[in-house]
Write a structure and sequence with these properties.
By secondary structure, the protein is of the alpha+beta class. It contains 13 helices and 29 strands.
């Protein structure tokens, strides 16, 4: 769905969820500004039992001149055939939004689908905020939010509040919006300093003294009463300062679902990966290595775990997580190749970019991909590889020349998010795909590999601080010419990239 498809209606009402938060207000404000610029009669509304009263939201509405109006359900005039209702940061018919009568409805949201799918719907549960989705939709139509500082500030604050002060961002579109919006810093500072109330600080104190602690795995589970999501992050940060706690999960049971914050201070547990594990199938999660967060849909949780208390759910899932993987430190041992088969890498075209062909040597850069960011420094010795699914990783010139042949053709693939390389000094981003050329693996590259039957975390030779996560049915592999060079290959990539060798070919 594109916004231009909705311009045929003579009147549009944009509805935030009941008791709207900053993300809902910002998202609705973006749509209000867009349709208003097209000469359409548009209004921004919310309903429900409570009016906006939280200090930071009152300040946000006043300072950014957000024309949001409260409507009573029993006084609402049903919308006609030539009018449209758009629910934003929520789904029409869901439990967190008053169902106002309308003949035509569109939905823009970043949560898991929990109602019957509608013809007019834009959903992306991987985004950290609905503000990000609206920003993307505006960009599609050539509408630059930076031409409207009030809107840019609102969108930034919407993302800021819904991702625990930007600490739980994991989607590249979230990162792009964060980096590109030109907002009013003084207003953002005032909003940040109006976020917590004394009652919410009391919630944090009570939560900390009622935590569940697991001594064997050194994790803590903390329940907080309903509060601003940023309170959860503050509790998490405090909990992790306890000398016996390596990992913690802090959650709050809300009307529409469970909001959670995840922290880890050990390299063997990535907070973002743990957040995805805890929300798998019932919500969304992600973030950074140390800080992450997630949201579990009320509808999905009740469908799968209705009779399980949240304390029990999180404790059991954490126990399953810690019992569910092995750890391999490649530098400490050679791989045991018994039970492994020998394969050769197929000559599947890959992409590569010589980093110094884009930016000067020594430039600090950030490579942004769908699966995360990679920090690097431009060098004649660093090549950036691009895989068939858009995965990106740097390798040395020596390894590149030993492992690949250059075909001379440009490299083109169809992927959801085109990777970029950002100059950290100037802030300017460049497309990697525009500078990518094709290469193929040399025939002589051979590996031993076997399907993974139990999850494994491999710390490869080239990175002793970050592990490669191998899930069931992925492959554990090791180069035949270096039994310390152990790594993980995702199943779909392995099936396309490797060919089994018969004994007489080895």
């Amino acid at each position: 769905m594109r916004l231009r498809e909705l311009e045929t209606y003579k009147k549009i009402m944009v509805q935030c969820h009941d008791n709207p938060d900053a993300d809902a207000l910002a998202s609705g404000f973006g749509l209000y500004r867009y349709f208003g610029s097209k000469g359409i009669c548009v209004s921004l509304i919310y309903s429900g039992p409570f009016r906006i009263q939280k200090s930071n939201l009152v300040l946000m509405v006043d300072e950014l001149k957000i024309p949001v109006e409260y409507v009573e359900q029993n006084e609402f005039t049903p919308l006609t055939e030539d009018e449209l209702l758009i629910t934003v940061d929520c789904q029409y018919g869901a439990g967190n939004v008053t169902k106002l009568p309308a003949s035509n409805v569109a939905v823009i949201d970043h949560h898991q689908l929990e109602v019957e799918k509608l013809p007019l719907m834009f959903m992306d549960a991987s985004c950290g905020s609905c503000s990000t989705i609206v920003w993307r939709l505006l960009l599609q139509e050539g509408f630059d939010a930076n031409r409207d500082e009030e809107l840019a500030t609102a969108l930034y604050y919407g993302l800021y509040t819904d991702t625990n002060q930007l600490g739980e961002i994991y989607n590249p579109y979230d990162k792009d919006m964060r980096d590109e919006l030109q907002f009013d810093q003084s207003i953002i500072m005032r909003l940040k300093n109006s976020n917590f109330s004394l009652s919410e600080l009391e919630i944090a104190g009570i939560a900390l003294i009622r935590c569940i602690y697991n001594e064997a795995n050194r994790y803590a589970v903390v329940k907080a009463e309903p509060c601003d999501p940023n309170i959860l992050g503050m509790i998490s940060d405090l909990m992790l300062q306890v000398n016996t706690v390596d990992t913690c999960v802090v959650y709050s049971n809300l009307t529409d679902g469970i909001k959670m914050s995840v922290r880890s201070c050990i390299k063997e547990v990535r907070a973002d990966e743990l957040a995805r594990f805890l929300t798998k199938g019932i919500g969304t999660g992600g973030g950074h290595i140390v800080k992450a967060g997630g949201f579990i849909s009320r509808h999905c949780y009740d469908e799968h775990y209705q009779k399980v208390s949240l304390e029990t759910y999180f404790s059991q899932r954490l126990d399953e997580y810690f019992a569910g993987f092995d750890i391999v430190y490649a530098k400490d041992r050679e791989a045991d190749i018994s039970g492994m088969q020998k394969y050769k890498k197929c000559r599947v075209p890959l992409g590569f970019v010589k980093s110094s062909s884009i930016l000067p040597v020594g430039t600090p850069v950030l490579i942004r991909t769908l699966k995360g960011d990679v920090d690097a420094s431009v060098s004649d010795d660093i090549y950036i590889m691009i895989g068939t699914l858009g995965e990106v990783y740097p390798i040395s010139r020596e390894i590149f020349e030993r492992s690949y042949d250059v075909t001379g053709a440009s490299y083109r693939i169809d992927i959801d998010y085109s990777p970029t390389i950002k100059d950290m000094r100037s802030g300017r981003s460049h497309s990697l795909m525009q500078s990518a050329y094709e290469c193929v693996e040399k025939n002589e590259t051979q590996v031993y590999a076997k399907p993974i039957t139990k999850a494994v975390k491999v710390f490869p030779l080239w990175d002793d601080d970050r592990y490669m996560l191998g899930k069931k049915e992925d492959y554990l592999a090791v180069r035949a010419d270096d039994l310390n060079d152990i790594f993980v290959v995702e199943k779909d990539i392995f099936d396309r990239s490797y060919e089994r060798l018969e004994e007489n070919e080895s």
